[in-house]
Fold each of these.
Amino acid sequence: MSAQQTPKSISSISFGLMDPEEYRDMSATKVITADTYDDDGFPIDMGLMDPRLGVIDPGLECKTCGKHSGSCNGHFGHIELAAPVIHVGFNKLIRRLLRGTCRECSRLCLDEREREEFEDRLERSEELGKDVNDVTKAAIRQARKKDRCPFCGEPQYDIKHEKPTTYYEVQDVLSSEYSQRIVAAMEPDEEAGRERTTPSELADETGIDPSRVQEIISGEFRPRQDDRRAIESALDVDLTEEDENKLMPSDIRDWFEDIPDEDVEVLGMKPARSRPEWMILTVLPVPPVTARPSITLDNGQRSEDDLTHKLVDIIRINQRFMENREAGAPQLIIEDLWELLQYHVTTFMDNEISGTPPARHRSGRPLKTLSQRLKGKEGRFRGSLSGKRVNFSARTVISPDPTLSLNEVGVPDRVAKEMTQTMNVNERNLDNARRYVANGPEAHPGANYVKRPDGRRLKVTEKNCEELAEKVEPGWEVSRHMIDGDIIIFNRQPSLHRMSIMAHEVVVMPYKTFRLNTTVCPPYNADFDGDEMNMHALQNEEARAEARVLMRVQEQILSPRFGENIIGAIQDHISGTYLLTHTNPEFNETQALDLLRATRIDELPPESGVDDDGTPYWTGRDIFSELLPDDLDLTFTSEAGDDVIIEEGQLVEGTIDDSAVGGFGGEIVDIITKEYSNTRARIFVNEIAALAMRSIMHFGFSIGIDDESVPEAAEAQITEAIDNAYDRVEELIETYERGELESLPGRTVDETLEMKIMQTLGKARDSAGDIAGDHFDDDNPAVVMAESGARGSMLNLTQMAGCVGQQAVRGERINRGYEDRTLSHFKQNDLSSDAHGFVEASYRSGLNPKEFFFHAMGGREGLVDTAVRTSKSGYLQRRLINALSELEAQYDGTVRDTSDNIVQFEFGEDGTSPVQVSSNEETPVDVEEIADSVLDAEFESESIKSEFLGERTEPTNLSEHTDDWWMAEGDD
Amino acid sequence: MVDVSQHELVPDHSIVDEDVLDDVLEEYNIKKTDLPKIKRTDPATPDEAEVGDVIKIVRNSRTTDQAVVYRLVVS
């Protein structure tokens, strides 16, 4: 395979540590000079910009591979470090190894039995796909418990880790004041009942020569270890103090080199791939210049990448280290330089380590080093690999257009002229292709580019378009503008479910916004208060076919979330069908035709009846029935509360409202989608929307402040009802103050009082609403909307006309503010309703200042709640999606993750898709499917079956335009 | 002590025989370790089940009457 080609498949990946020898082998050059370019602007040999590390300047040739910039990926170099340093990324693992292995013989401090146990557990963990780290951690913990190495008997010391890269051995050494401690312990102590110990007694007891004891006591001789122990036990004193012995990286490297391969394996590492000593760097790879390109500023000055700056620092210190060591500098200086080298190598890899000051640029900005390039939202993984900016996409504001089909989207012409589709020119589309090219890039159905069979791309311009059009031949490719009927993908963020991305057919339109049919607002959760949406033009036939068959809006009418339709009539559509069918009004011929004129119905059915003066009329229900399939039978209860009966495609009785044609489970839409087809459902929804718009315009529909006013008599009734409630609350408060209020089970008296007051006031608001409701006509627009389920509720109406009611914060009456009162307008400890946020007024009458304030308190809580809820649930959703994203339904019906672990033996335990199963509670099984399978078994072949059952032509799944033909063929 | 296996909401858990198990593993073309897991200490695992055994769980289902699931007992 040539280096140009990308590998087609990756059979395996293995991660491990890198052998320093490997660094040297792959290195194109050793880097020894800290400078980049010489005075003439040429890269210095064996410097950081050595031409062997790759090329970034166009026109130059790579000295290693001979390729030019763009095709040469660059080559690594290396720096020989003067002294080993620790790789920060492994500081935890290094600590673990230091703690688990013997300081003398480097073997893992576990006996045979323990080793076997951990080996077993490791194997089992790997098999079960559990975290191997848990086992290795446990192994280290076990090994750390040992005081002495089980193999060589060497005592083990605790390892102290000072983040990020310093390690100490904590040892017990002889205290500097040992003689004083011995003398003090030899003195008599009355409290402890101890007698004086003479030096000779001590000598006898410990078996040390008496003269030596004298020397020890006078501090002239430091006792050896066993002597010290003997004295300690004889006198019952502690002569030691803790001392920290710093482990230099070279010590650690020597230590790790001796760890046997078998022990490394118990710790979950593969010694063939990663020896522990490789975690201590002796060679530092220098990234190719292509990974740290230098840029030339406007003034001709070169500006280097952060990584290059860091490498310069490393080389400088490295050099200084070597010079000092050769000159025989004192140990202290060497150690300082060593630490400095460690710091630079550490920050080269990660510049955001806690405890270390970040390395800074001259301007004071922290440098962006290796791990900063990878980490975080804008890092390589999340920013450049999983998500990147895409071509052939457009974004603009959306606005409604009821004349579009729900499958379509209006695309501004200036977008259509930019997003191109590739035409492969052949004999049959040659004329079209030439026409597009002849139109040039400015006129609408034009073309922007052509590609000759030899692969050369030519830009179509106003000047050359005529000329170029004649040259186009079969075999050319033309990038033509988007035209009506093209398929595109449309999306609105946040993309929370699969209906957030759907395919639409293009309708090219003037002006600057994307146009949508309003029935697709619920799946996108879109409105037109400034929402923007994204469009993606598809670039190959497979994508276009797949989008058309699987992703088109009509294929998404049923939601997999609840198995019912998510697309259907909304808001004014529902008010419209309600007005049309609720009172079943009569229309003359002109009116009836006008209502149906935006649908495919162009002939009226037989009249519903004849007027007194002989003119025929059509009822609203009969007009609605024209849109139903001819053989539909259905009964259900409507939102308005009456029974809807549909027989043979005729609406016999009932009101068509939200529960019939609405989104989120409108019965008729649901049934048509499931029993007929998605195409039929799309036609139905489109026509319902068109009919509803016509009918709402016929009747006229508006709402104003007077629509919520009630007669004075009713107003008086409402005031009375509220006054009564006030009296009852007063009574409650009096009983409470007398101490006669009986508490409800499980509550205190105060809680009981609060509850009862809330109850009373709640009832008061409801009765105010009832009184107001009684005085509204059935044709009141607010009532129509609430009854039909189009928008709003009776509660909203109550608040507008009757009384807003009790305001609450945290589910209680308002209790906050000043000491013992809510506002300074009230007496302290006032329990009355108006002092705790009961709003007596209605929105129409207007709130007084105190009421307004309480209302604002309740309103604020609602706003805060929504804000908190969206962010919380968004994060929860992100985590769930990340956790479940690798699960996949397999062809054998099981659901498995990427490592073939079974998660479900049958998708959803029943292997059915929620959109294919009936949504009926009582019969959750798809009876039709079962009937089909019984029929299949009954008949010998397809032809006999179709002869017996008759045929129903199914629509093709191609385009809006072909479906019209199918509808014309059909009989309904 | 309450025996949860007798509770109406706890489906039937039974140990799968060695030869039946082979058929199951072959049907799904998997190793034993690819099965979902259940803890030995889980109150619903039968008392006689040991680590490495496979448990068959038969649940009642609204849509398919019975849904069968296998789980590997782990420590």
Amino acid sequence: MCCGSPARTIVADPLYYLEIESLLNFPRSPGGSALRVSLFITCYNDTLFPGTGQAVVRVLERLGHTVDFPPGQTCCGQMHYNTGYQAEAYPLLRRFVDQFQHAEAVVIPSTSCVGMMRDHYPKMALHTGDFQLQAAVADLLPKVYEFSEFLTNRLGLEDVGAFYPHRVTYHASCHGLRAINLGDGPMRLLQHVRGIELVELPNLEQCCGFGGTFAIKNADVSTAMLAEKTAAILSTHAEVCTACDNSCLMHLQGALHRQQTGVKTLHLAEVLAGDLEPAR
Amino acid sequence: MSTNSLDPRTSPAFPILAKAALKDAELRTNVHHATNVIQAKRARVVDEMPDWQALREAGRQIREHTLQHLDVYLEQFEANCTRAGGIVHWAKDAAEARSIVIALIKATGVDEVIKIKSMTTEEISLNEALEQQGIHPYETDLAELIIQLGNDRPSHIVVPALHKNRHQIREIFRREMNLPDLGDRPEDLADAARVFLREKFLRIQTGVSGANFLIAETGGVCIVESEGNGRMCLTLPETLITVAGIDKILPRFEDLEVMLQLLPRSATGERMNPYNSLWTGVHPGDGPKTFHVILMDNARTEILADQESRQTLYCIRCAACLNACPVYKQTGGHAYGSVYAGPIGAILTPQLQQMQHAKSLPYASSLCGACYEVCPVKINIPEVLIHLRNKVVQENTAGFTGAFDLEALAMKTIGAIFLDERRFRAAQRLGRMGESLLPRKQDWITWMPGLLGGWTQARDLHMMPKETFRDWWEKRDKNAL
């Protein structure tokens, strides 16, 4: 079982054994053709949340696909672009295109980085006046998927053979909700996880107050927004709050730990990576 | 009154004003309650519209087209309004607009005017200017009356006294209207205001208004409101003076079909405004004998010239973005230090003021996108915020002192690190060494220095894992061989 999942005694439940049964018989093949998936881990997941990347690899390989990691990748440029340092973001756009332009499909376990690319890369490419770059961006973007979106939209899956016997609530990050319109995709994936007890988070559409450098530049307002979000999470009595973006989760985790609530945060990939086999 | 002035040239930065607002529990309760109520009403009447998204798109296109041909439509409005007996004045900035209004009022020989709620006259601080000239303006919109009597400032574009509850309003009315026995039921307060205002409506012969829309095709003006007090100001006086930004133009009368659906549903959650006033020039024996309209630029042409942020001018002042904004919900409007608060204020104010002290406003947003989602004319507010942040950075990093801007130095260094994966790996290792120097509890950092301290004031930070993802991947690759 991967990183930091809280322990919980599993109550005997006839349905539970049926679910285990279905998991044991879960097909270990991609269904359609196996894909070569290029993973863009993103700078902060690489540095702070390696477990998320490992979980993405585990889920995709479990489904029969191969994963590729272009080693020259670093950052999408979101922090610079959104803070007003656009000049610093342009070389990072070029770098991303160089690293991934020949990919069959690009998977990114971060809603805000995918949002950055969809919202700003075409316009940035246009500004450079470089026709080749514009064409490369137009060609590459349709192959770029947020992790949950890749499962639901590209592979057409809702059941990825996951087992995660915990009480979980889902935080819909603003970029997942409004920039890339994930809709109920992540919830449908979670609903098919065996053993899970899924609880709805009140005021789902409300921002957690992270907003990148906003959390630092406007720390007091950010903290006030965060307090409302952590109160909502606590009201669900969930053991784990999951999301498709570790930046929101890092923010929530920071407060949930400070307040000694015992509630953990975990990227959706790590929930979906949960299965009956020991991690390699 | 100047002590309460919301002047972005002199106001403290947003984080400072926000900190003060966050400590005011009563204010936060009032703002939370009011925005939640309006937001829920809006959601209800928007959800019942099957073609809402198409309406939004139509609204956006009307505004976009109008502003692309603003010169043509402004002249068309001038010609048609003049033909109908109106008198059109042009003002290039706030000072010119104020002096035109003052001259017009003085020409009528009165020292009192009744006013209908208007953000444009707030923008140019008209009331202060009038009082300095010995002219007393009476605000007649109930909320504006509360603000004026309370020596306060509007905190919301549509509901200026949203930060006050009825107990606070009763205190203001008791004191200012000399009504010691006044109750605090809504009807008590409305009764008191009615008695107070009716006398002004009947006595004062000069009215000052803003405008929701100017119709180029007819030369007509449109104002929508909920109370009917505006209708009194527009019909009873001998002289009516309307101050409008040049962005308020609509090409055709039938464009109101789109706007008068979008605006009330977005603004107050009503299907239609209770009072929709439309007038064109003057008519003998009906309404004001003299009608002036002042078309004011006040930096709008500069906004129009900026391709990236021109969409700011599409705004029809519905304030849906304020009610939806999680930042506004926490702080209320005064923290923005401007008459235009909330997300639209955060993009409009810096552009009206050439940044100056409003530099903190483009950062007063988590870029959550709730404002863009509700905007009836689809202004991509997050996009404009980011564009303005870039302008702030350019100003901060210009010249000799700019070379020592700490934030810029840090951002440029990080930018350079990301240009090469070997540098990035070195920085990750350096980060792990650096963080071991910080105070912590087990694996959690509890304090960080400088700006980063904003994070640890309410949050811990988990220490970096021993192994990055790419370290793990390389090891795994090797093991697989």
